[in-house]
Amino acid sequence: MRPERLAWVLLALTLAAAVGGGVLWAAGSPSAEVAWAAGAVAALLPAVWWAAADLRAGRMGADVLAVLALGGTLLVGEHLAGAVIGVMLATGRVLESGAERRAGHDLTALLDRSPARTRRRVGGDLVAVDVDRVAAGDRVVVLPGEVVPVDGCLVGTGTFDESALTGEPLPVDRAAGEQVSSGVVNAGGAVDLVASRPAAESTYAGVVRLAGAAAARGAPVARLADRFAAAFLPFAVAVAGLAWLVTGDPVRAVAVLVTATPCPLLLAVPIAVTAGMSRASRQGVVVRDGRALEALGRAEIAVLDKTGTVTAGAPSVTEVLTSPGWDREVVLRMAGSVELLSSHVLAGAVVRAARSLGGTPAVDVREEPGTGVTGIVDGAVVTVGKPPWTEEPATGWAASALRRAQLDGATPIWVTVDGEPVAALLARDEIRPDAARTLRRLRAVGLRRIVLLTGDRAGAAAEVGGLLGLDEVRADCTPASKVRRVEAERRRGVTVVVGDGLNDAPALAAADVGVALGARGATAAAQAADAVVLSDRIDPLAGAVETAARARRIAVQSAGAGLGLSVLAMGLAAFGVLAPVVGALVQEVIDVAVILNSLRAVLPAKAVRLGQRDQELLRRFAEEHRLLMPVLSAVRSAADSLSDGPTEQAEVQVRRAYQLLVDHLLPHERAEEHELYPALGELFGTAETTTTMSRGHAEIERLVRRLARHLSAGHLEPSQVDDLRATLYGLGAVLALHFAQEEQGYFSLTPGSPSTS
User: Fold this and answer.
1) Which are the catalytic amino acids?
2) CA 461: distance to chain centroid?
3) 587: helix, coil or strand?
């Protein structure tokens, strides 16, 4: 019988015995004692089993004390007290089993993702076979969008989405002869590869085995109730024994054990934990069991994945760098039109960036895997993808764009019109807007160490770690090395691992608490975890840790207060003031008090409360930030255009940037100053919270006025170039910082606020 069903059966039996005995006693029937005794025996039998299991595991749990109390009531004939204890014991088990339906790590999602069938090339034919029948040396064909079934060597070139294994968010191009690991997704055209080993020995199969082994090694966290009982049990037995020894009356000893029955532990702690789990679920985090919530509440170390966890997990276009004479919006609209029907990962980033510009799908669209997409837009042949040259340019706007991409850790997407390169779209995986605020909240609740483990490149990982202020960054991690690092961190303290990908599943299983971001369908990670964040945001994690810590504090408080009152009752019982039955009733009063206190864990803690007007304001200005990104891009492009001096084209770009600032940016900043910031001051209780941001507005206006003075003198002169470039670059830097501060400090308060990506 399943533990949860057994608990419900036990509760039904003990409750029926207690109530039935009460009815018989009221009717004057001597069978009441038999009914109560039956209830006590019904509780004693499973309690002995549970206590024996605790002792075999080396734990001195609360169940041992319950066995002593139940056995004592039966020995001295205090059957009513035994029946009452039985009801309390069964109620505690029902609450606990309801909070612990999941006993182990389910790794079926890892197996389900692995393809069962593939295509083997035999001569000129393709034969569908079971993956298990593929041997080393067989030639396998993988179609677009399929998971690579075995490790192998590429026959031709290919493009792969390796994020599930390595955390690299952007597609990776592989040349003929390169090795490809099983578990990655074919992001290009159909490819042939020669299997280097059978599926059972592949990289993907190794990840599955690693996750299973990590789950088996992960010892469960001791129950909070058991830790209290380990100290309370010897004390209760000593007091009971002393009372018997001094008075010679075994009933005194039973009365002590009855009042010492750990109902505050058996009820108050599970109720507080269950209430905390309920509260966490309302915050968008499903915690699988009570042990996980307890561990989450005393977490000291967080180990985070990068791609899809602290970053968005998908590339977005952050800059549009154009050649002289080409307008940013025109180029972006043309690129979006061509990419509209492409399935390439980067195509989605281009389409999202161009969405607000309108445009219609290109015609005669052709996609060449590994090269790009070509189509006709407004009569022009537009190609989006790889650059048309074989050697990188050393000078000019294209060389500048390449340097910018390298410095920013971005991937350039080249746009050519009629064979001429006209723009580079820089794409990268950006940090989530809510990530920085989430990490600050985690530190505030007690986490002393936050580590980043990623399979991505060292440069990209270091950039993210520096921006978020992490304690340690480890790049180029494999699933096995992640597990080793997590095990090392666990030796320092209770460790929470947060991830969302297949490569994170073993580390999640190895952690004290594994937390998966499950909104994007990362079922392999979700089923290897102890908690799942249901939204595509990371800030619910901070709320769940805060809730878990609060639930644990309330549980400790309830257990401590309940045991303190029990000690007082034990003293009265030892001196003969409380008989066993009265002691059981007193214990019930104590139970009610601690249960009511434990139920506080389901209530929200004091926090910033967003009204409807506040949410609307935050969403409005967050959306305006997204629409203002072309202004920021225009400012940087204008500064870049001055590298060749005050040319006519440079002056056009500078004046255009200035006009965008005056028409769009300054009205936005002034509206924030007069509408948003006063509302935030009321929300946080003081206007001082926005003082530094107001200073940022003042600096932005100062730089725009300086730019205006440059332009008011007529045509630009060579003597103006140095200061003008400094002004524009300074303005771009201030705007970028100011936007980031508002997004992380204010806009991330509202669920669903758009990011600037």
Assistant:
1) 305
2) 18
3) helix
